[in-house]
Amino acid sequence: MTVREELEKAEEGLLSEFAVKSARTLGRERPLAPCTLRTEFQRDRDRILHCKSFRRLKFKTQVFIAPEGDHYRTRLTHTLEVSQVARTIARALRLNEDLTEAIALGHDLGHTPFGHIGERTLDTLCAGGFRHNEQSLRVVERLENGGRGLNLTREVRDGILNHSGRLNPMTLEGCCVARADRIAYINHDIDDALRAGVLKAYELPQDCLKTLGATHGERIDTMIRDIVEQSRGRAEIRMSERVQNATDALRNFLFEKVYRDSWRLAEEKRCDHVIRGLFRYYSDNPGEMPLEYVEISFQEGTERAVTDYISGMTDRYAVRQYMSLFLPGAFAGL
Questions:
Q1: What is the separation, in whole angstroms, between the first and last Cα of the chain?
Q2: Which contacts of 288-297 are long-range, i.e. CB under 8 A and separated by 24 or more positions?
């Protein structure tokens, strides 16, 4: 018996009846010979972890654009925090932790430079709109690995697509990630906003703190424990009404005081200007994009190729490209 087979056998005995067992995956679009060491979901996790899009997350905005401090979150550290929260929930509910981790690590691969600012701008520029969860799926299905995609299992691809949006994931592991994503960003965005001086501790809604906790750690612990208590023995991932209402109220507070407040307006305009300038330029000059995107422009149209190229940029790469295209450089003649 191989190591993989031993792991699959252990899953049958240890995991909940509601968990997805690795040996029963719905499979991949292109079948692969089984690995002797890793389950199918472990292979997916590794494929995501080693891909280029994952590495680029370290230079993509979470909330604060190009932060000078070393302790502000980036899209990469957000992803790691989502993974930790989701795995904690999955482990407590005896769900498949490997599947959960793979979805969590891949859920934001399609995020734009400048975070949700870039997403909103691309959404206005693209005829069919732009949503980062759909782009994350496109990254793993089409863009990575030289255009061949990562060939992930159906369960992982579904969890990546449906971690946000109107539809629920098909697995409870995917639902864990959707919950963990919200838990992570609500709490770490408060932490970063306090560090930046955008928020003061006394401004936080006291009724929410009474329910969830006064500190960063207490709030995360309350949310996770509530989900575990409410979801054990059920075929759903849920919160109690009391904790759900406090969580939603805290999220609404963040939208009012951090995500949409006036302090962001000047930066948002600059980011919007960069994205729009790049989009116009490459739409008019698609041949100046890297070859892989030129090929996409022939196969799927220029707008699709430009969207793929810009959404894959890091913050600093987008700024450098804009500067090289639109700002005069030093004259090198004699």
A1: 73
A2: 292/143, 292/146, 292/147, 295/147, 296/147
Tokens representing 231 are 């979801």
Instruction: Give the span between the Cα atoms of 75 and 87, in whole angstroms.
Output: 18
d(CA 230, CA 85): 16
Q: Identify whether the C-beta of residue 217 lies closer than 8 Å to the C-beta of residue 278.
A: no
Residue 107 contacts residue 133 (beta carbons within 8 Å): yes
Alpha helices in 74-215 (DSSP H): 75-92, 97-106, 115-125, 132-138, 154-161, 172-196, 206-212
Pure H helices in 197-287: 206-212, 216-231, 241-254, 265-284
| Chain-centre distance for alpha carbon 35 | 27
Position 333 confidence tier, pLDDT thresholds 50, 70, 90? low
Angle at alpha carbon of residue 293, lines to 291 and 296, rounded to 5°: 115
**What three-state secondary structure class fits 93?**
coil
pLDDT for 71 equals 72
Tally of domains in the chain? 1
Which SS3 state, helix, strand or coil, does residue 232 take? Answer: coil
Predicted TM-score (pTM) of the model is 0.95
Find the Cα–Cα–Cα–Cα dihedral 94, 97, 103, 106, rounded to 10°: 160
Whole domain around residue 136: which residue ranges? 38-263
CA torsion, points 190, 196, 202, 207, in degrees to nearest 10? -10
Supply the CATH number for residue 165's domain. 1.10.3210.10
In 3D, which of 4, 121, 111 has the Cα closest to residue 59? 111
pLDDT in tens, 221-264: 999 999 999 999 999 999 999 999 999 999 999 998 888 766 67
| Tokens found for residue 152 | 């992930």
Instruction: Name, in order, each residue with C-beta under 8 angstroms of 261's C-beta and a sequence gap of 6 or more.
Output: 198
